Amino acid sequence: MGSPVLFLLLSLAFSFPLSSSAVIISKGTSLSVEKPDILTSPNGDFSAGFYSVGDNAYCFAIWFSNSRTVVWMANRDQPVNGKRSKLSLLNTGNLILTDATKSNVTVWATNTVSLSSVQLFLNDTGNLVLRNKERVLWQSFDVPTDTLLPEQRLTRNAKLVSSRSQTNISSGFYELSFDNGSYLVVVYNGPDVSGSYGYYSGLGYYNSSTLVFNSLGNFSTFDDLIIMSADYGAVLHRRLTLDYDGNIRLYSWEEKGQTWVVTWQAVQKPCEIPGACGANSLCSYVIGSGRKCSCPPGYKMKSRSDWAYGCEPEVHLICNRSEPEFLRLSQVDFYGYNFTIFNNHTFYQCREVCLAACDCKGFQYNDNTCYLKTRLMNGYRSPDLWGDIYLKLSKSKILSGDNPLQEFSLNCSSVGTLQSSKNGDNGTVKFMLWFAGGVGGLEIICIFVVWCLLTRTRKRLGVHDKQGHAIAVIRLRKFTYAELKKATKGFAKEIGRGAGGIVYKGVLSDNRVAAIKRLNEANQDEGQFLAEVSIIGKVNHMNLIEMWGYCVEGKYRLLVYEYMEHGSLADNLSANVLDWEKRFEIAKGTAKGLAYLHEDCLDWILHCDVKPQNILLDSNYRPKVADFGLSKLQNRNALKNSSFSRIRGTRGYMAPEWVLNLPITSKVDVFSYGIVVLEMVTGKCPSRSVLVVDDGGEAEHKRLVTWVREIMNKVAANTSSLEEIVDPMLEGKYDMGKMEILVWVALQCVKEDKDERPTMSQVVDMLLPQEQDSVIVTTNSWPTIYDMSSGNLISLLRQAYFILVNLLFNKLKSFHGI
């Protein structure tokens, strides 16, 4: 009985117009650009029709009726002529837009088909709908341009694309969409770069890959992220727009002032948005004045009418023919496009490396770390930034102006203007230069003496091969490709695979079982490969995988490691073979290995991809961190042109710095370590959300970190039990005190602000059993342990002495090239 009645009601609803003032297009009818007919929503809030975008140029669009603010366009990148162009609903059910001046060529279509009657109408939400009696064939809500309206969903199959400028509605350089990890990411596709930069949108993580907000100004997500507009609660006209500058803003219509007001935005400082001012340019931000763009010294604006094209050198350097020099810019950084990063380098070593590299445009030098820049992207000047940038410019250009090391400051009152600092302290500067020269001369004499000693040592040890390249390490064996192919029986047994390459099990000629990694990138310079293998080969720690040898032959690059009987931590977690004691010891051992990489070995190394797959277990389930230093062994040209997601570790374990293009420090490994510990404790994968059922019986999805942090807050308030987050596979068999410490340490490691995270050595201290004479002093959010016993104090002083000796030796070693 119900079906015929329902069919009759649907037929009646479909056959009547939505409003007496609304225009409805049926089969065989059309809207002409020359006629004033428009589609109107029943409530009158929205209109759809031909919208003028230039001289005799039109797009079919939807706009707010009161402000004529466009929220959707069909043909934003291909406007039609103002004469005889039309939107037609064909008898086949296809809706097309034709341009009369191009022989009625179709510039846009829905590509729909329907044998029954079809109608096109605009509803009260601003959604343009094409449907027949049975279903919706097409709707504008599924294909947004740069704007979302309340109740309009942004799904994995759609994206927002910014406009080109405030006055140009064509597609711009920013795209908002879901990445592979269900994060909403804004990616910059500028004139000179494509998909290389992005940032978290500020709208959170969505397990269902869907974004939606309501007319009250509220965003609520499955991971319990709630964002509210400043005027939340008022029923107003609202729109969420990806603006031309790459920022996401929520606008509310203010009836009194007849204007749109920003009630929420994703990024508070526009200069932090990638590509803000184009390549080779500087962005500065002044509260109340907004974003300002300018060119650094030695550069000029590429297009006087468009900052998207950035700046270009006034004098182009010719490799091996120009005489470059460096100009210092203080409190400036160019995020991204680091050619490479050198630890334990002096300023002069960093300078010489950049001079020798033709594609080095400048370098940043901070705390004995050298960052070479192959492109000057995302320039940002702010008092909050630390360190200096040294731009490589023509020596004649610098000498014709100011001192090469003179600082420049931006005059934000006029775009593109630079103002040099005063020279009132010339006497002090001259004194410092003479003093530095004297110290430098003394240092040269000392280095010459040590150089002679090291040369004798090098000759005695024979550490050069016939090509003049540094041998990786004396204890490393150089294998031939034929040997490794035989050991693996033609690379038959694959035991692991990652972004860097494939790992095979093999048996060497001396009957040792080995793990042989074949690197993907194979066109790296042999000398550079050997130099970087030597860094990995020198590392020796009980919680780090040991390298036995390498192969560099033609296009082949392979590394030979000790074989781990119990495979990776990931394999063991999925197989449920790890009890509480093993998990706690793995957490401690992994922390010790990372702390050694960060602070104790001569060549400090960042891992940048800490995850269970890279933590291997030996026969006693002792953890050994693998794949450290492999980022150095990838072809830099490939890395330089890599996609946004490829060069930034593994989804779920990545620190926020990667996506925000902030300087990368050891704290990225700390963040990833914290995620790994939470995975060991809870047994839940961080790349998937946790399904949580509240007291009311309603289910919702939450991120792993958010879920654990909420439970621990309830544990602290005695309203919940730690048992709630512990892996059920442990069956309650664990040390409650150690478990609380482990979870607490992990939550400190995954702080959003990297400065609030502990170092790995501090993590080790927090996990080791404390003696009675230890005093825990809480600073900020993590404890530092000061041991007051005399014996341990002597040990601490002894360690400090050896660290200083190692630093001195490393400096001499780097200078000499060992």
UniProtKB/TrEMBL annotation:
ATP binds at K517. GO terms for molecular function: ATP binding; protein serine/threonine kinase activity. Residues 1-21 form the signal peptide. It is found in: Membrane. It is a single-pass type I membrane protein. SUPFAM superfamilies: alpha-D-mannose-specific plant lectins, Protein kinase-like (PK-like). Pfam families: B_lectin, PAN_2, Pkinase, S_locus_glycop. This is Receptor-like serine/threonine-protein kinase. Residues 489-776 form the Protein kinase domain. Keywords: ATP-binding, Disulfide bond, EGF-like domain, Glycoprotein, Kinase, Membrane, Nucleotide-binding, Receptor, Serine/threonine-protein kinase, Signal, Transferase, Transmembrane, Transmembrane helix. It comes from Quercus lobata. GO terms for cellular component: membrane. It catalyses: L-seryl-[protein] + ATP = O-phospho-L-seryl-[protein] + ADP + H(+); L-threonyl-[protein] + ATP = O-phospho-L-threonyl-[protein] + ADP + H(+). The chain crosses the membrane at residues 431-454. It comes from the Eukaryota. Its EC number is 2.7.11.1. The keyword Secreted does not apply. The gene is LOC115972932. Its main location: membrane. It is an enzyme of class 2 (transferase). One of its GO terms (biological process) is recognition of pollen.
